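Researcher: We plan to redesign the surface later, but first we want a full-length starting point. Tokens attached.
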């Protein structure tokens, strides 16, 4: 029986190998492309909801402006029926707004906790659809390992599903170049990127890359997985640089230096391909055997950057 005093859910971040970068419907968070991601074990959000007199938000014990959460809770009320005001207590084990998918794990955990609190009997796909209204990438954080968010055509059919693959020895070397809040939010970045003259071509290319990525994962071809992910990410960031509405970049000097070192690693025979989300941090796709060597290689050259190793993570869970 659900504890009506509160309910806690845990969701892990995910990193997209084929990106979501642009909205076909901003109000409903319907994407212009389907996307594919890997859920990570090392980064997560634990969120507890408790009955309160008004909606409020605490992150890592600090009171926050809860406007975005309040708006999302009201969307859930409109969709599922009214429920009392909630105090949202979130423990975030991932840097906020730095391109490490903090909003994905946050809104996935919040959706799951609210659903459990209210005794909603929902499938993971239904939870994924609801979470999309808070953060598009949250759709994928309900599932272990790889997940695909099918763009769909409307509110009813735009959600993620688990994408089962043969067991892969994949790992990411996470280069934490900056944990500060980014100057251009993901939502604003997408709006601006969609003004690029190259945007329509990127959408078409992304669909082709997704089809090829599925084949590469099924055949356990990690090198091809890395090639496709790097090409997709770099093309996404090129859209930001070619936006006609205030072009911009999430990269800084350290981002560029790390990307050059990824090329150098490949020349030395390492499996190493880069992917980046909306932030300066670089994630290097490799295998679990080479990840510690790549981490050591980079740590020698970048003394001020923190390097972690991330591995495939679990789906949603409850406490």
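Model: Full-length starting sequence:
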């Amino acid at each position: 029986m659900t504890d009506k005093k509160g309910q806690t859910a845990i969701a892990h971040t995910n990193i997209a190998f084929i990106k979501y970068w642009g909205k076909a419907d901003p109000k409903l968070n319907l994407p212009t492309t389907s996307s594919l991601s890997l859920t990570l074990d090392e980064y997560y959000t634990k969120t507890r909801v408790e009955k309160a007199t008004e909606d409020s938000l605490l992150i890592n014990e600090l009171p926050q402006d809860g406007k975005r959460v309040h708006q999302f809770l009201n969307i859930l009320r409109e969709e599922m029926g009214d429920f009392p005001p909630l105090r949202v207590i979130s423990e975030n084990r991932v840097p906020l707004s730095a391109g490490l998918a903090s909003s994905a794990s946050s809104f996935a955990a919040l959706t799951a906790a609210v659903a459990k609190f209210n005794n909603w009997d929902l499938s993971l796909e239904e939870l994924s659809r609801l979470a999309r209204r808070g953060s598009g990438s949250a759709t994928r954080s309900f599932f272990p390992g790889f997940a695909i968010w099918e763009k769909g055509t409307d509110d009813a059919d735009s959600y993620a599903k688990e994408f089962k693959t043969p067991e892969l020895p994949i790992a990411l070397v996470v280069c934490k170049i900056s944990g500060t809040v980014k100057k251009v939010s993901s939502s604003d970045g997408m709006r601006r990127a969609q003004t690029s003259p190259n945007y329509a071509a990127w959408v078409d290319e992304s669909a082709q890359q997704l089809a090829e990525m599925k084949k590469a994962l099924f055949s356990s071809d990690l090198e091809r997985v890395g090639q496709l992910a790097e090409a997709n990410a770099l093309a996404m960031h090129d859209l930001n640089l070619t936006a006609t509405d205030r072009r911009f970049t999430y990269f800084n000097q350290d981002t560029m230096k790390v990307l050059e070192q990824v090329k150098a690693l490949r020349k030395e025979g390492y499996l190493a391909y880069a992917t980046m989300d909306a932030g300066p941090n670089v994630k290097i796709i490799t295998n679990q055997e080479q990840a510690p060597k790549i981490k050591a290689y980079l740590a020698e050259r970048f003394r001020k950057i923190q390097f972690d190793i991330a591995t495939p993570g679990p789906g949603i869970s409850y406490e």
